[in-house]
Amino acid sequence: MKFFVDTADVTDIRALAGSGLLDGVTTNPSLIAKSGRKMSEVIAEICDIVEGPVSAEVTATDHETMLAEGRYLRSIASNVCVKVPLTEAGLRTCKVLSDEGTPVNVTLCFSANQALLAAKAGASFISPFVGRLDDIGQDGMGLIADVVQIYRNYAFKTEVLVASIRHPVHVLQSAKLGAHVGTMPPSVIRALFKHPLTDKGLEAFLADWAKTGQTII
Ligand code: E4P
């Protein structure tokens, strides 16, 4: 399973990229706004830090302008993945960009039928939002199970990118279902490393080691 970080904060991205465990980055207009920076500059900087796909989202709602924005975003760096919303215009734009060889991440997916349409439009990634479904009392992970099954049934190449991940259990469930990618806030990636028994065990090992008076090198 690939790990993407869902942020436009380059300090966090740089730190996580240093772990060697980061496979890509997703951003959205809200995250760009939160960064307080010009979109083209922040996307270019992220693309320099991370080799994998960096999702940059269009903000137009009509096909022609979305296409122009998508082509512009793709010109920023070769690892830009253009993100479009799951609307009719978004999928039309997805088809054209995908046919041109540009990877497209279709975002704001909340149903399996929407995911089916995105795969038919040639999307490289589909982003079903699990947390936002859970927030309204629906089954976010149930959607992931449905999409994974449908894509397997027809051998679609579109990767299931689990989005709106809120906690480590979402990551575990996504991995068990065979989702290709999870995008998560930096805090969730950091939480994956943690276990109280790891901390307790390490403390005991180091205390015993100190008693020996040895050093390894
Ligand atoms: C994914 O690409 C989205 O940017 C993101 O996962 C949305 O998460 P949120 O529902 O926590 O805002």
Task: Write a concise keyword list for the protein shown above.
8 strands, 11 helices, globular, binds erythose-4-phosphate, 217 residues, alpha/beta, 53% helix, eight-stranded parallel barrel, TIM Barrel
How would you sum up the major sheet?
8 strands, parallel, barrel
| Count of DSSP-assigned helices | 11
Overall structural domain count: 1
CATH topology: TIM Barrel
Helix content: 40-55%
Keywords: Cytoplasm, Pentose shunt, Schiff base, Transferase
GO biological process, one term: pentose-phosphate shunt
Active site: 83
Protein name: Probable transaldolase
What would your notes on this structure say?
It catalyses: D-sedoheptulose 7-phosphate + D-glyceraldehyde 3-phosphate = D-erythrose 4-phosphate + beta-D-fructose 6-phosphate. Belongs to the transaldolase family. Type 3B subfamily. Pfam families: TAL_FSA (PF00923). Its EC number is 2.2.1.2. Transaldolase is important for the balance of metabolites in the pentose-phosphate pathway. This protein is of the alpha/beta class. It has a single domain (2-212), classed as Aldolase class I (TIM Barrel, Alpha-Beta Barrel). It has 11 helices and 8 strands. An 8-stranded parallel β-barrel has the order 1-2-3-4-5-6-7-8, surrounded by 7 helices. α6 runs parallel beside α8. It binds erythose-4-phosphate. Erythose-4-phosphate (E4P) binds next to α7.
